[in-house]
Amino acid sequence: AAALAAELQSIAASFGCPSVHARADYAAAVVALESADASAAMSAVRRACAVWERLGARYETARCRVVLGRALRALGDEESAVTELSAAQRSLAELGAAPAEREAAELLSPTYPNGLTAREVDVLRLVAAGRTNPEIAALLFISEKTVARHLSNIFAKLEVTSRTAAASFAFDHRIG
Question: What's this model's pTM, rounded to 2 decimal places?
Answer without folding.
Answer: 0.65
